[in-house]
Design brief:
This protein is an alpha+beta fold. It is built from five helices and seven strands; from the N terminus they run H-E-E-H-E-E-E-E-H-E-H-H. Strand 1 and strand 2 form a beta hairpin. The longest helix is centred in the N-terminal third of the chain and has 24 residues, at 2-25. The N and C termini lie far apart (50 Å). Keywords: Signal. InterPro entries: N2O_reductase_NosL. Residues 1-17 form the signal peptide.
């Protein structure tokens, strides 16, 4: 009986350790966009800019790093000089946004699970080309049909599109990079 008890305790402890490990891997939740949020790169109030926004949760900060566009959030993840202790990247789900001018305060999606329209006629913060995020592929396809551009996953957004001042030309190039995240 003692041996069975010890084996049972060991199995229980392994199961508990596995649960704890999964809990620590869970993404921290996105924060609600408020009037106090200012863009990391532009220093301006996010609510003054149309289009999708971004927020990045870092392990080293209690508050998110805010971005006036989803494209700027991508830039942060690519640039070598930016922090690499990223816990989560969230972007506005434009399929659930009230409008382009008011992208919403709490309709965030994990950027790694989103579908992005690149190369559209819509411009984001600071009148720059935008990576327009959607949680639903059909909504992204419809947006691209109306506004131009193509649908790609997070991993397939070209770094040149994010970092280039001529991003629209890069996105217009045909490619087989469409797909699910």
């Amino acid at each position: 009986m003692t041996r069975a008890w010890v084996i049972g305790l060991m199995l229980l402890s392994f199961a508990m350790a596995g649960c704890r490990e999964k809990a620590s891997e869970a993404l921290p939740p996105p924060q609600k966009l408020t009037a106090d949020a200012t863009g990391h790169y532009c220093g301006m109030a996010l609510l003054e800019h149309p289009g999708p926004k971004g927020q990045i949760i870092l392990a080293s900060r209690s508050e998110p790093v805010w971005f006036s566009s989803a494209r700027d959030a991508f830039s942060f993840t690519i640039l070598a000089e930016e922090s690499k202790d990223v816990r989560a990247v969230y972007v506005s789900d434009m399929g659930k946004a009230p409008s382009w001018e008011k992208p919403g305060a709490d309709n965030w999606i994990d950027a790694h699970r989103a579908f992005f329209v690149i190369g559209s006629r819509k411009q984001g913060g600071m009148s720059a080309p935008e990576t327009v995020p959607f949680s639903d592929r059909a909504a992204a396809d419809k947006f691209a049909e109306i506004n131009g551009g193509r649908v790609v996953s997070f991993a397939k957004v070209p770094p040149d599109y994010v970092l280039s001042s001529d991003a629209g030309a890069e996105a217009a190039k045909p490619s087989e990079t469409s797909g699910s995240p």
